[in-house]
Specification:
This protein has 202 residues and is mainly beta. The relative contact order is 0.17.
């Protein structure tokens, strides 16, 4: 799964010089409860958001997976992004099983002020393995989360919440990119089994 997350970075500069391609359909990031794992279909997503920016296939745990991306950017216009000189952009990734087009994962990031996903890393210290529940994680970290199930996870009995944030700032030729991920794995009872926070800047 980390491979697919890194793949997000490759489209940052492609999106930078584009407008919100899907107009009112992608003006704001959708709420996670609009995506139901094992129920929402590829066809339903395309009907709602239109043709994806990017569509590709990968194999996860020997199972073919379809990845689709929606994204938009309005640059660093005043009042749009979380802070000055930060590129305002939204990125949504959706993952489907190739054999039935059913959703198995979703993730998104935004540096727009209205729906920013720049979660508070200090709150992660309150997440306890073996004790904290999935719902408590969402209460702590906020409602802008992604979620994955097998084969995007390594264990068929576990699922994963994902909080992600990408920030591109600076000027042409002098860009700085900040990436922040929080992966919280939980079991069939909704109890957290693992917490992984990663940050990078370049």
């Amino acid at each position: 799964m980390h491979h697919s997350l890194k793949f997000l970075v490759t489209i940052l500069f492609v999106l930078f010089f584009t407008a919100c391609t899907f107009g009112t359909k992608f003006v704001e990031l959708p709420e996670p409860d609009l995506f139901v794992l094992e129920e929402t279909t590829y066809e339903e997503i395309v009907a709602k958001y239109g043709k994806p920016n990017i569509e590709s296939s990968v194999v996860k745990n020997k199972i073919p997976v379809k990845m689709v991306n929606y994204g938009c950017s309005t640059g660093s216009a005043a009042g749009k992004s979380v802070k000055p000189w930060v590129v305002a952009e939204r990125i949504l990734w959706l993952y489907f099983l190739e054999n039935n087009n059913k959703l198995i994962g979703h993730s998104f990031s935004s540096s727009y002020e209205v729906d920013a996903t720049n979660f508070d890393v200090n709150m992660t210290e309150k997440i306890e393995k073996g004790r904290t529940t999935r719902n408590q994680v969402i209460e702590l970290m906020g409602p802008r989360y992604g979620e994955f199930m097998y084969p995007l996870t390594t264990d068929q009995e576990k699922r994963m919440l994902l909080y992600s944030y990408y920030e591109t700032s600076g000027k042409v030729g002098r860009w700085e990119i900040i990436q922040r991920y929080l992966h919280v794995t939980y079991d069939a009872n909704g109890i957290v089994t693992n917490v992984d926070l990663t940050e990078s800047k370049n």
